[in-house]
């Protein structure tokens, strides 16, 4: 899936978060969106995903040469971020069943297999609200990584993960890159070491655009 941003800008009140961003995220590419905390990386991801409207500029989406209207983007998108909440009143099994109704898993990955990949076999019938922060983050990542979508967005993906969790992330993100357009918002190199392109949001700040 290809995303073409032209003159993209986002402003809250009188403050520009970014502006003048022109870039094409090519189908099958992996791009790291870099910048310090508070620079607007998450805002850019949310704008590129179609969840927020840009203040200026345009976004165009294409899949296999077909123009995709922005309202059709959500089913094609998998998104993992610390601020996105899980349905904590469900058990792990219930949550996976519910999620798969809207975002089918990649071919060859069953719900049972996903539980095994997360090393959460003993927590299958446990309420998600009783998971540790690391278990919740691993679950968020697994739902995104193994969703059958051509577009994958990851925002600070190793938040709340210990060293073993970071190694798990690195293994499984590499296993699910094929034929996807991937954007990673981060300032931690181990989160985006696989990316072949980098875009620094500070290059599109208010000062840079004047």
Structure, explained:
- The chain is an alpha/beta fold and about 210 residues long.
- It has one domain (about 1-205): P-loop containing nucleotide triphosphate hydrolases (Rossmann fold, 3-Layer(aba) Sandwich).
- It is built from six helices and nine strands.
- It has a five-stranded parallel beta sheet with strand order 6-7-8-3-9, with helices on both faces.
- Helix 4 runs parallel beside helix 5.
- The radius of gyration is 17 Å and the shape is globular.
- The two termini are about 30 Å apart.
Question: What's the helix and strand layout?
Answer:
Layout: E1 2-12, E2 15-25, E3 30-34, H1 41-48, E4 56-63, E5 66-68, E6 77-80, H2 92-102, H3 111-117, H4 133-145, E7 151-155, H5 163-175, E8 181-185, H6 189-192, E9 197-200
Parallel strand pairs: 3-8, 3-9, 6-7, 7-8
Antiparallel strand pairs: 1-2, 1-4, 4-5
Helix pairs in contact: 4-5
What summary fits the major beta sheet? 5 strands, parallel
Give me the CATH architecture, please: 3-Layer(aba) Sandwich
CATH superfamily: P-loop containing nucleotide triphosphate hydrolases
For the record, the count of structural domains works out to 1
Coarse morphology:
globular
Helical segment tally? 6
Order of the strands making up the biggest sheet: 6-7-8-3-9
How far is it from the N-terminal to the C-terminal residue, by CA?
Answer: 32 Å
Text of the CATH class = Alpha Beta
Derived structural class: alpha/beta
> What is the helical fraction, as a range of percent?
25-40%
Unreliable spans are: none
Bin the strand percentage. 25-35%
Q: Give average pLDDT, whole number.
A: 95
What is the H-and-E element order?
EEEHEEEHHHEHEHE
CATH topology: Rossmann fold
The number of distinct β-strands equals 9
**How much is the radius of gyration in Å?**
17 Å
